[in-house]
Amino acid sequence: MSNFVKILLLSIISLVMVFVMNESGKPLKTPITPLGIINLEVAANINRVTEVQHTWKDAYLIKTAITNTCYDFAFLVCYASLFYFCCRQVAKQFSIYSIKGKLSTLFSYSAILAGIMDLFENTGMLLSLNGHISNAVTMFTFTASLIKWILVAGCIIWLMSSGIILLYRLLLGKYKIDSAFAK
Asked: Nearest to residue 159, comparing CAs of 111, 115, 97?
């Protein structure tokens, strides 16, 4: 399977998962949790986790939150793989000895680490949603979430800036589009 097809399929599957998670998570958006499941992801202390859980428990939404978190396990595989393959593809466009090539490789590994952090975050959220709320679980979940978001933002920023660099090279005639997705 060509790199183009891998990236295209992972993009489509990731977008489908975003849609599925958004639709299944809509009931979780309340006045107290306007960001839905993200409010639990970024709950930095036990009081906030308890507040989120009570809000959803009163509205009979704990099962919805658990289902949405389970969908995230599939999504994390998709987006981490997508960012990994995109960053690896970008790395191939630069010399492996250049700073851009090295950064692209670094960000490809960052994408995998983001997926692992998301796995930890989801585990912590499932513990909390099943009534195992503690300072340790809260800090574990919050820290994993924070690291994940930093890594994901880094990958996105890197891919966008690399895209601009490669587009500039294409416009100058120093880059051939047919070589972009070669095996």
From this structure: 111
